[in-house]
Amino acid sequence: MIRIGAHAGHPAAGGESRKVGQIEDQEAVDLAADWADISQGLRKDLGHQLFSQWIRPIQLGGFCKDTGTLDLYLPTEFSANWVQDRFHDRLSLAWKIARGEVRNVRIGVHPGRRKLGDIDLRGQDGFGHRAANDAVPGMAMASIGEHGFTSSVGLDPSLTFAAFVTGSTNVLAFNAAERMAKTETPQFSPLYLKAATGQGKTHLLHAVGHSYLQGHPRARIFYCSAERFMIEFVQALRQNEMMEFKARLRAFDLLLVDDIQFIIGKAAAQEELLYTIDALLAEGKRLVFAADRAPQALDGVEPRLLSRLSMGLVADIQSADIELRRSILESKLTRFAPLEVPADVIEFLARTINRNVRELVGGLNKLIAYAQLTGQTVSLQLAEEQLTDILSANRKRITIDEIQRTVCQFYRVDRSEMSSKRRARAVVRPRQVAMYLAKVLTPRSYPEIGRKFGGRDHSTVIHAVRLIEDLRKRDADMDGDVRSLLRQLES
């Protein structure tokens, strides 16, 4: 049996056991790589919403070579049963194609995780519950127990305000979300969080729920995705339980709805959400919505609902800049202590993986997992080798010509000086900076860079790169110049 994340070898067992452990570690890495490929295909086939709800939470379990059985684990029985019913055949076929030795895929709940019951919207108290770390965006609500409402409302326990790294691009949304969760009456409601995929809007949505529960332990909280809202609405409609559905929905103190863009075109569900918003606002309740676009850009949504969504505060989360990306990576490193990740690797990841925060953190996790499973040291070379797919998707195609042109404009020197033989300081330093940037921002080798700078030898380029690296550490002005040029070239 091969276990992901568990080393089968024991140092005391001698060389043979270490060899077996290394083989199993490599097989575990191979399984993880196959799963990454399968996941990518499923994301394209199923779309972002279905993939995020049901496939992303899957964890690799053990693989038994004797029976050809691979275990896939989900956080709860509800999600495991859902995936078993709807995606088992597709997952089995995908694994058989990717790895012929997999003959059977078994889907279940991780043996070490407590099993919870399915959501029940029709119980006597009207409140279902879900494991806090279940990423499936169902109708997750506070449940009434012997000691009042519990704090398990389908919120990911890791997504708190304390774990959210702020910068200039997200501080407005962070402060607005924090204000919404405070005990005093909010200045605005609803709060509408707008951000592209992977920039932190869902994190803030969960954080509002956690923080509000700390101040209001008996609060009734409703958290779901817009798509799940529509599913439950249709079920209530079919089962002739709309009165109960409306009563339960309007009894909550805090309403959290994610991915509101997926309510597009559903007239009846939109109308019910509109009435719910009006009822909760009239009672001074709190509402937070999250979407990947502004309210005005939601096509297929009736004007009255658009008006309600935008009547409070629309807080935009911009793409994380380089400083914020560095801070996020450094904050995540505390989880992997005492594993050492060199500063040049952090700088490389922060500079290269710039599409969204989720990919950035995923890249770091993948790199560290590979290093731990194979016993290798985290290095710049390892990052470039193992994160090829992520890096290629994020890397902006910057040319040496573009670098030379930008540097010449910045230092106000003629473009011809990049290839000239002049050695005046006013010309040499900009040329060296351009060589350094060419090495940092392009995949070109030292000899290739040298040829673009008047046919210079590769040793000249190496000297320039090392010199600028050293100057950046000692000279604040030089470091500022290089940072400014990087921002211009990467924008």
Describe this structure in words.
The protein contains 19 helices and twelve strands. With 491 residues, it is of the alpha/beta class. It has a six-stranded mixed β-sheet with strand order 5-9-10-11-8-12, with helices on both faces. Strand 2 and strand 3 form a beta hairpin. The radius of gyration is 27 Å and the shape is globular. The N terminus is likely disordered.
Question: Which helices and strands appear, and what pairs or packs with what?
Answer:
Layout: E1 2-3, H1 15-46, H2 48-55, E2 59-64, E3 69-74, H3 77-98, E4 104-109, E5 140-141, E6 144-145, E7 148-149, H4 171-181, E8 191-195, H5 201-215, E9 221-225, H6 226-238, H7 242-249, E10 254-258, H8 267-282, E11 286-291, H9 303-310, E12 313-317, H10 322-333, H11 343-352, H12 357-374, H13 380-386, H14 388-394, H15 400-411, H16 425-441, H17 446-452, H18 458-474, H19 476-490
Parallel strand pairs: 3-4, 8-11, 8-12, 9-10, 10-11
Antiparallel strand pairs: 1-2, 2-3, 5-9, 6-7
